[in-house]
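User: Please predict the structure of the protein below. I'd like the answer in C-alpha cell form so I can feed it into my own downstream comparison script.

Assistant: Understood. Taking the following sequence of 67 residues as input:
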Amino acid sequence: MLNRRRMRLSGRLTKGARSLLITTPDEGTWIVDAPEFDGALLEQNVIVEGVLKSPERILADWIGIAA
C-alpha cells in the first residue's frame, strides 16, 4: 500500500506557499506534511522520516538536522 511505505529523505527544507518542501540532492522536490516542526530547521539540510502519503508527499514523523 502506498500510504504505508516508510521513507527517509535528505535535502534542504524550505517553506512553500502552503506547505514545507524538501529538495533532495538529485533536485527532486517533496511536499512535507509536518504538524509540528522546529522553524530553525528552515533553509537547513535535514533528514525527514515518515510515511509516504502520495507519490511526492510525505507525512513526517521526525525532521532533524543532517550531519
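That's the full C-alpha cell string. The first strand starts at residue 6 and ends at 15.
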